[in-house]
Amino acid sequence: MSTPTEATTPTEATDRPAPGDVAVELTYREAINAALHDAMAADDAVLLMGEDVGADGGVFKTNAGLLEAFGPERVRTTPICENGFLGVALGMSLVGLRPIVEIMFADFLPTAGDALVNQLPKYRYMSGGQTAVPVTIRSIGGATGRFGTQHSATGESWFMHLPGLRVVTASSPGSAYSLLRAAVDDDNPTLYFEHKGLYGRKGPVQRGEIAELGKAAVLRDGSDVTIVATLLMVERALAAAEQLASDGIDAAVIDLRWLRPLDLPTVRASVDKTRRLVVAEEQVHAAGWGATLVSQLTIDGVDWASAPRRVSLPDDLPIPYTPPLEDEVLPSADRIAEAARASVRG
Amino acid sequence: MSTPTEATTPTEATDRPAPGDVAVELTYREAINAALHDAMAADDAVLLMGEDVGADGGVFKTNAGLLEAFGPERVRTTPICENGFLGVALGMSLVGLRPIVEIMFADFLPTAGDALVNQLPKYRYMSGGQTAVPVTIRSIGGATGRFGTQHSATGESWFMHLPGLRVVTASSPGSAYSLLRAAVDDDNPTLYFEHKGLYGRKGPVQRGEIAELGKAAVLRDGSDVTIVATLLMVERALAAAEQLASDGIDAAVIDLRWLRPLDLPTVRASVDKTRRLVVAEEQVHAAGWGATLVSQLTIDGVDWASAPRRVSLPDDLPIPYTPPLEDEVLPSADRIAEAARASVRG
Amino acid sequence: MTEPASSPPDRLEWYQTMVRIRLFEEKVQELFMTGQIQGTTHLCQGQEAVSVGAIAAMRPGDVQTNTYRGHGEALALGMTPETAFAELMGRSAGGSGGVGGSMHLIDFSKGNIGANAIIGAGLPIAVGAAVAFQMQRKPNVALSFFGDGATNIGTFHEAMNMAAVWTAPVVFIITNNLYGEYSPLRTTTPIDDLARRADPFGFPGAIVDGQDIDAVYAATVDAVERARGGGGPTLLEMKTYRYRGHSRSDPAKYRPEGELERWKARDPIDILGQRLIAEGVIGPGDPTEIRNETQAEIDAAAERAAESPYPTLEETIPYVYAD
Amino acid sequence: MTEPASSPPDRLEWYQTMVRIRLFEEKVQELFMTGQIQGTTHLCQGQEAVSVGAIAAMRPGDVQTNTYRGHGEALALGMTPETAFAELMGRSAGGSGGVGGSMHLIDFSKGNIGANAIIGAGLPIAVGAAVAFQMQRKPNVALSFFGDGATNIGTFHEAMNMAAVWTAPVVFIITNNLYGEYSPLRTTTPIDDLARRADPFGFPGAIVDGQDIDAVYAATVDAVERARGGGGPTLLEMKTYRYRGHSRSDPAKYRPEGELERWKARDPIDILGQRLIAEGVIGPGDPTEIRNETQAEIDAAAERAAESPYPTLEETIPYVYAD
Ligand SMILES: Cc1ncc(C[n+]2csc(CCOP(=O)(O)OP(=O)(O)O)c2C)c(N)n1
Ligand SMILES: Cc1ncc(C[n+]2csc(CCOP(=O)(O)OP(=O)(O)O)c2C)c(N)n1
Ligand SMILES: [Mg+2]
Ligand SMILES: [Mg+2]
Fold first, then answer.
1. What stretches of B75-219 show up as alpha helix (H) in DSSP?
2. ipTM surpassing 0.85, yes or no?
3. Most buried residue among B91, B269, D36, D58 by CB atoms closer than 10 A?
4. By alpha-carbon position, which residue is closest to atom 12 of ligand 2?
């Protein structure tokens, strides 16, 4: 597992990106680590809490150096009790702190179901706006790990259904950094999803950058078909677009990033051009963000040139443990490209 | 609140509807009560458990007479601990019992989040099919009660996203009865949703009838526009169809009933005729069944004559307590009719 | 917030506050009958000494969380009856602008940082506030009020455990009124004295006579000041009783005959009233006079509350997200 | 299921089973290195006496639930190493047809009704089975194995409370190996002796030397037979230690120096081995011989397991819904 690099040492934290900032090359893991360092260095009110967050850089090694830099009060190892310690974070946020809570696997989010559904999103509302709830929840989702069916959910769509929350997903080192800073900066409860299959990926990171709230990223412009993806599916969508390019198909790729608020205008602008859509999702389609996008765009009157397509997990199967089947059920670049081709054909 | 009527006394339970059975007129509450009586009388393995289920007919008076008929072991009052007692029900189901668990308000389902997301749906799968999990979960959802934001969720769409579960909703006394019997009869974990605004409604109930799994009900055929609804929205959709009829618009009304499995063929048959769809949902559209339907039908290539419409809860608002606003945010028959008219206009 | 606990307590004010809570709750029932309040409500007649006595132990900057049965705490913390009625009536002038309702009387300016409709949910919130105070090096304490039934839900255990492990300045207050909704304690709980539930966390638990406001106050001051001094959490079990059913729709037929009457014979308002008379703080006619004055205050508050308009949907949009 | 507890225990068989578990776990590590097993795994070397001793107290028809660290229980209950290896390798011949994996070695036919990857989730399941036995008037008992860290999650408290209130025939077994993932008990838990956590539920808790299989067996037989006789639940705290890190990726650098060695000096296999030699049940050379024989058995089992095919997607569809 990674060891702390220079990027994991706190630097002069800046609140806003200095225009001249030079991007550094970091892994996704290091980018998250850097965002944690910078957010904690920028504001004493920020703390990190969760199970085993401190020792040995945390379970996914995203927290390297934090315990040493900020001490055990601000890098707080909790007992195993997700609902309880998320409630604790809520309480902290009501009296001036800005906790970042690590829920180790996204599959454990339901263990904190009440805090996530009835408390964090509704707390400000039911007080008539008396308080803000600046809590960030980092959770690690996704398959590829051969962790089996209770440790492989992405989980992000469960929370789209809940007014009061924000939901954001990180697909690359650069966005992992800037989105985590944005999440911590925001005064509302924000679920921030990492993907366990991405920790080793390298990419440019603009230290100090804070992403714009609710803004999807058009990673590749295109005129024939729009592919929308999140998390691990983004790199597969980009790979699919490469394949398609060599077939003469010009695919746009959008990293949706935020599920709540949902950036319909950015997706709309693209599909107005392409009139074709493929959603590439590491989740069951029913009640997910892909269905939400297709539905809302259709309701909004997009004039599809051919029916939208989806590349999703099987409708009726939990994630299998066995490596060949785990690989088989996950949408691949090939399947995404094939869906795009079909949409262009038909 | 209702008092037990003759319908709440156990009768000769029959496993399958006798063809000659005469329908009786019952309230929604009485229909649920009758189904509980009949299911428990039919099979000693069936029990009812939950908070305060026994005394005084239970909190919503659906359980009148059960404690007296079946005793405190089979009508088991639990401590307040939704995750725990749902886990207990799971354990019971593994060794031969068929528990019916009452989760008083649908808002408390997330309190049992782990049992609902990681245990019940995956238990059979991760054992490689070694066991069935015949657990029925009754939960009471919906607004209209002036119960405020932590007691008004419908909640049914959260669970569509989860392979391994079945999810069913009851909109009338007749379906409340036959669907509850079907849920208890099934060998898989089934979430059965009641709506707290419907308990007083009267309608015909076919005692002994067991509904077909996964089958939506076409309540009204129509050629101009298809309205799909669940729970409280079904009667509003029917009222809207009446209004529309007097405007010369012929609306089909489908009570979706099952969200998992989802009866796409029935809805598809109707929209192939009407080419227009309105989903009437007491929920936020994002990541709900309405979005799932619109998306899947569009992906499947339905040739819409005009864009599908939705009548939903506000995208970004928890349910307010204050009566005028609670009424305002709920989709009304008028709003459903207006959406249907707009869809017919173009 | 009431006066700092270090100044001698004003027990006449306690008395008045208890009467205010009692009459407020009775008025709520009446307003239900006339349809001016809709939905459900959970009243606390009989439990006033717990709310008032424990809250009297708080100092400025201290906070608490309570429950759907939280009118007593809200009023004891200084929410005006008018603001509370307006909330129950769903009016703009309510503490939450009318969107919260009976189960959510909240006032951050008075240390009332939460009234929760989910069993157990208030406990970790209080622990979080307490740990925050500790990290901020503030001399403050958090209290959490909850019911006997709530001691069976996991969140109770989780909150107690974290409070202990972090020596959080928090006081857990069980308002043990012997029932969940319809279920007597013994059908859901294998022990009678819930104070015992502190033992596996290694901090003290104490049983308190919840009908005796002086006892409630003394026990809470001890616990609060111990917490403030870095001594960690305490669990206080206040033995009390609710006179009414669980909620509006509950006639409480499940209670054994005579139980209500036995508890009413130890009414917390009467106990303090008689003590104040015996001590010469008030005269024998004063209870009636206080009741009458308070009744007039309550009636007027309800009337004024009813004049507040309902909120519009626009008004409530900013309650969802902070910016 | 092992033999009825009423017949005299076959302690040589215990010894062999402990060795089998130890060598199985070591082989799993090896198969990870060679890539024949992927993902993660949670090994139980050092804890064998708990699994084998407690399960020896079960009788036919009794059931248990365990956790992601459940290989010991699975093998003690009689799953063959081949079936277990095949599951870890994701093969059709695995106990769950390869779809479960290392964290879910399950065999209903042997009373192994669950191996759970969610902390605390197995406890209420065991309570449910126990209550079902009670309702079915069956003379059976359910056991639940879980870790020290699991005693901090709410489900623990909820399960203990229900077990008590319903006098369920269930035995809760804490495998207290002193650590959660990387966190020593004391950073997450305010007390050292977790047996104390039975007190607020009014049933007994006992501390047991988890390195001494005879002690484990005796304590579990007591608890299981009390439960069977209608005496209700027991909480058993087995003091033990895991030799390896939490999971595959954990080198366990957070442990104080010498700790591992101190525990290895009280190795549960050695303790029983020496006792059996002293009692003349086996000769001084037998431990080595048993080890060698078992090693051969394990190696052969792993080889056979690797010959099983991977399941196809179709094969696994019927695992989702029962019909
Ligand atoms: C998680 C959850 N489960 C169930 C309920 C429904 N409920 C509301 S009050 C109550 C009884 C609570 O009893 P207790 O804690 O003793 O408080 P009391 O009402 O007596 O003040 C129940 C079960 C709830 N609000 N939240
Ligand atoms: C609800 C939940 N939270 C967190 C985890 C991650 N996790 C897996 S094992 C573990 C430590 C458990 O410690 P303990 O109960 O002592 O068991 P041990 O691993 O020592 O056998 C944690 C936190 C989980 N599996 N489930
Ligand atoms: Mg109570
Ligand atoms: Mg442990």
1. 82-94, 113-114, 120-126, 173-185
2. yes
3. B91
4. D180
